[in-house]
Structures are given as structure tokens and as C-alpha cells.
TrEMBL record:
Residues 159-208 form the LRRCT domain. SUPFAM superfamilies: L domain-like. It comes from the Eukaryota. It comes from Molossus molossus. One of its GO terms (biological process) is myelination in peripheral nervous system. The lineage of its organism: Eukaryota, Metazoa, Chordata, Craniata, Vertebrata. GO terms for cellular component: extracellular space. It holds the Pfam family EPTP. The keyword Metal-binding does not apply. Residues 1-20 form the signal peptide. This is Leucine rich repeat LGI family member 4. EAR repeats lie at residues 211-253, 257-299, 303-350, 352-395, 397-440, 442-484, 488-533.
């Protein structure tokens, strides 16, 4: 019976004091032996009930009861001690011990209990000693001990605890109470088998997860999706080449979904890049044919209107557009994929944006990425003809700094920051997409991830989680999360057909207290997912 059992026998000796007295007829069930204040029942087919209401101690041994239901002991409200041992019941329901406000000792040992409800111990405000030792409990529900402020001794030994996220709350609870707690060892997972629970570090548990669920579909395919905030409200603009428009969406608080706010005519558009300057809103529409345009809204309440044709002799086949700030002024860089065109830096001058510099001529650039390294603006260009090239801002223009080794056939690049480091996500259509980290002079290879028709490898910072999504035209897109202790991206979830087909860009916004992920798809409509944060320790 263990230490608690020895303690119990001594306690029973005190309570019973060897008195051979039996209560009046009908006050001691046939399967029980009773003294003045105590009863010991063995082999009973159910829970005996016909006790004296003044009973102080009750022991139940080898009963055939299968579960303890709510209010099982309402007829013995004076109990100070209750013991179960070698019984066959496996479940303890909520409020099983309701009415036992004077109970101080509860021993549930050497039974077959595999499940205990979170409110099973509710109302035991006088409880000082609790033992659940030697049962079949793999976990305990969070808040099981809530309201048990008088506990001084807890014995959980001899249970096959699974030391995963479900025990995290227990590890956090133990040092917060004055009670002595015996916990025993882990039965699993394998790597923690036989490790004492008291030796586990709660900080090593990763018990938060993000789950994406479908929320809404936006008709027509898209190549790009960009979030922006205007007048304090989040917006999204989609580049829809086949529909020939830049589509601006905002949140409808009445319908609780995203709605069309405005659309800009932009045939063959590949990128719609927003810029907010106070009350003014600009959208750069980079188009394959017909010339790229700048649209502007001078103040709220007006519609966007085209105001400028952008570098018609330089931008022959734009493939990407990015916004960056140089010397305190907003600029756009447009990557041009034609052999005769050139990637062009357009900076604000008066009411419009005009060419400031041509970059990387004849290299058929497919992507531009603006980033900051060592406190200075940098620009990374990916092209079909060579490895990505890194430029730095110096003397009012971009100068070539270096290229990126081991990065041939890179279609696009995106960067993110974590723990003071700068990382790159480099997209390869086939082969391995790459994760690299800046070491102060060069980007060094950190991780390789298989690509199966990838056009996008998009990092996203969502709340406390650094995610990255590696798209696929032929298989499921992979949602990954950066594990800070490893410094690597680990799989989190898959997104795929039939909803998500050939993704080209991802973006997230927060509105109305909810987080959303937009996925622009080339061979299907844009999909909107809602992000849910899960607590795996619950």
C-alpha cells in the first residue's frame, strides 16, 4: 500500500480506536465493517450509501464500481477521510466529491483510473492530503487542483505519465504551491522515459501551435498580394493579371468578411505596390504590356486615378516591384525581366516618381528585395542568368557589393529578421530552396528544403511566430516555423489542393481581433485563411 497506506492504517487506528460497536440496523451496509466513526467496505458491487451521516472515515476496497459519478458521497457530508484502493473503476467525473467540505484526506491508490475530470475535486476546500498514486493516469487535466488552497501533500507516483505538452501545466504548478509533491517518472515519450518529472525544465517544452482554416475565396487568379494600412484600417491589394486589375479589399464589420473597396484597371498587371504618405495613397501598377502606371488618391473620400506613366523606355517587361526608403525619400525598384530592359530605381521628385538609376542591365531580373544590413540600405536582385547580386547604397546610388554563393537558379528572394540575425529565403522552382543567414560579410547556407514547382518562399511574422511558406505548383505548400533554439525552419502545416493551386504570394493582416493569411494563386482564386493559435498544453 506504500507510505500513504501506512499513514492510513495509523489514522484508522486513531479514528476507530478498536471499538467493536456497530451503528443501528440500516446504518452499516452488509459488505462493510463499521465502528462508531469509520467504515471499511470490501467487495461491494456498488457504492454503499446507508451510512450514518456523522461518519468520519470511509475506506472502499475491491469494489465493483466502474466510475465515480457526480455527488457520489452527498449522504456522508461529515467525512474527514476517504480511501479507495484496489478498485476497478477507471473514471472520476466532475463533482464526484461534492458536499465533502470537511474532507482532509483523500487517497485514491492502486486503482485502474485512466481519466479524471478537471472538476472532479471541486469543493474540497479542507483537503490537505491527496494521493492518486499507482493508477493508470497518463496526464492530469489543467486546473485539477484549482481551489485546493489547503493542500500540503500530493502523491502522484506510480502513474505512466506522458511527458509531453499535457504535463507542462503541472510542471509550472509544482513550484507555485507550498505542498510537497511526489511525481514519479515519465513513461513516455521514449526520449524522456524514466526521467523524473521534477527534473524536467518547462522552458524546453514547445506547446504553442498555429492552425490555418479556410475563411473566404476572392474570385480570379492573382500574382501578388500586398497589405497596407490607410486611415487606421488594414487593406489588401491583389494583382490580378487575367482580370486586368489591381483589386483593393477592406474589412466589412457588418458582414464580418472582406469586401471590394476599389478596383484599378491594369491589364497584364504583375505587381500592385501600395504607398501611404499621410492622407495620400499611391499604387504602382507594374504591367507586362501597355506601360506601368502610378495611381494616386490625394485624400480620403476620392477614388484612385492614374497620374503618371512610369519609365516607359526602361520598364519593358516588369516582373516584380518593391518599396524602399532612401535618404528619407520613398522609392520603388522595379525588376525588369526583358533582355533589352533594365531594373530601374524610381524615386519621388515633386508630384511623381522618376528614374534615379538603372541597375543590372541585360540580366533579365526576376525579383528585387530591399533589406537593411549593417545599418545601411541594400538591394538584392535575382535573375535568370546569374546568382543573386547584392547592392549597397553608397553616395546616392546602389553599388555592387557581392553575389550569393551556392545559389544558382534562384527565382526570388525574401528576407526576415530574428534574434538580431538577418535570414534569406531563396526560391528555386525545382531542386532545393535555400535558407541563408548573414554573417557580417556574406550570406551563408543554413538550410535546404525540397522544392517542387516553387515560385514563392515567403517569410511572415505573425504575432510571436516567425513563419515561412514554401509554395508548390505540383504538391502541398509547406508552412514552416522558425525554432529559435535550433535556428532552423521546422514543418508546421500543409496547405494544398483543391483550394490552394499554384500559389505566387502570401501576406497576412490583423483586423477585428482576428489574423488572416492571404494566398494569391496563379491557377485558381485567391484563398483567405484564418489563423488560430492553439495551446497544446490545454
Amino acid at each position: 500500500m506504500g507510505g500513504a497506506g501506512v499513514f492510513l492504517l495509523l489514522l484508522l487506528a486513531e479514528v476507530g480506536a478498536g471499538v467493536a460497536w456497530r451503528p443501528p440496523k440500516g446504518k452499516c451496509p452488509l459488505s462493510c465493517s463499521c465502528s462508531k466513526d469509520s467504515a471499511l467496505c470490501e467487495g461491494s458491487p456498488d457504492l454503499p450509501e446507508s451510512f450514518s451521516p456523522s461518519l468520519l472515515s470511509l475506506s472502499l476496497v475491491r469494489t465493483e464500481v466502474t466510475q465515480l459519478k457526480a455527488g457520489s458521497f452527498l449522504r456522508v457530508p461529515s467525512l474527514h477521510l476517504l480511501l479507495f484502493t484496489f478498485n476497478s473503476f477507471s473514471v472520476i467525473e466532475d463533482d464526484a466529491f461534492a458536499g465533502l467540505s470537511h474532507l482532509q484526506y483523500l487517497f485514491i491508490e492502486d486503482n485502474e483510473i485512466g481519466s479524471i475530470s478537471k472538476n472532479a475535486l471541486r469543493g474540497l476546500r479542507s483537503l490537505t492530503h491527496l494521493s492518486l498514486a499507482n493508477n493508470h493516469l497518463e496526464t492530469l487535466p489543467r486546473f485539477l487542483f484549482r481551489g485546493l488552497e489547503t493542500l500540503t501533500h500530493v502523491d502522484l507516483r506510480g502513474n505512466p505519465f506522458q511527458c509531453d505538452c499535457r504535463v507542462l501545466w503541472l510542471l509550472q504548478w509544482m513550484p507555485s504551491v507550498n505542498a510537497s509533491v511526489g511525481t514519479g517518472a515519465c513513461a513516455g515519450p521514449t526520449v524522456l522515459a524514466h526521467v523524473q518529472l521534477r527534473h524536467l525544465d518547462p522552458k524546453t517544452f514547445k506547446c504553442r501551435a498555429i492552425e490555418l482554416s479556410w475563411f473566404q475565396t476572392v474570385a480570379e487568379s492573382a500574382l501578388g498580394v500586398e497589405p497596407f494600412s490607410y486611415q487606421g484600417e488594414p487593406h489588401i491589394v491583389l494583382a490580378q493579371p487575367f482580370a486586368g486589375r489591381c483589386l483593393i479589399l477592406s474589412w466589412d464589420y457588418g458582414l464580418q468578411r472582406f469586401r471590394l473597396e476599389e478596383e484599378l484597371s491594369a491589364p497584364s498587371v504583375v505587381s500592385c505596390k501600395p504607398l501611404v504618405l499621410g492622407l495620400r495613397l499611391f499604387v504602382l501598377a507594374a504591367r507586362l504590356w501597355g506601360g506601368s502606371q502610378l495611381w494616386a488618391r490625394p485624400r480620403p473620400g476620392l477614388r484612385l486615378a492614374p497620374t503618371q506613366a512610369l519609365a516607359p523606355k526602361r520598364l519593358l517587361r516588369p516582373n516584380d516591384a518593391e518599396l524602399l526608403w532612401l535618404d528619407g525619400q520613398p522609392c520603388f525598384v522595379v525588376a525588369d525581366a526583358s533582355k533589352a530592359g533594365s531594373t530601374t530605381l524610381l524615386c519621388r521628385d515633386g508630384p511623381g516618381f522618376y528614374p534615379r538609376q538603372s541597375l543590372h542591365a541585360w540580366h533579365r531580373d526576376t525579383d528585387a528585395e530591399a533589406l537593411e544590413l549593417d545599418g545601411r540600405p541594400h538591394l538584392l536582385l535575382a535573375s535568370a542568368s546569374q546568382r543573386p547580386v547584392l547592392f549597397h547604397w553608397s553616395g546616392g546610388r546602389f553599388e555592387r557589393r557581392t553575389d550569393i554563393p551556392e545559389a544558382e537558379d534562384v527565382y526570388a528572394t525574401r528576407h526576415f529578421q530574428a534574434s538580431g540575425d538577418v535570414f534569406l529565403c531563396l526560391t528555386r522552382y525545382i531542386g532545393d530552396s535555400l535558407v541563408m543567414r548573414w554573417d557580417g560579410s556574406m550570406f551563408r547556407l543554413l538550410q535546404q528544403l525540397p522544392s517542387r514547382g516553387a515560385h514563392v518562399f515567403q517569410p511572415l511574422l505573425i504575432a510571436r511566430d516567425q513563419l515561412a511558406i514554401l509554395g508548390s505548383d505540383f504538391a502541398f505548400s509547406q508552412v514552416l516555423r522558425l525554432e529559435p533554439d535550433k535556428g532552423l525552419l521546422e514543418p508546421l502545416q500543409e496547405l494544398g489542393p483543391p483550394a490552394l493551386v499554384a500559389p505566387r504570394a502570401f501576406a497576412h493582416i490583423t483586423t477585428a481581433g482576428r489574423r488572416f493569411l492571404f494566398a494569391a494563386c496563379f491557377k485558381g482564386p485567391t484563398q483567405i485563411y484564418q489563423l488560430h493559435e492553439l495551446d497544446l498544453s490545454a
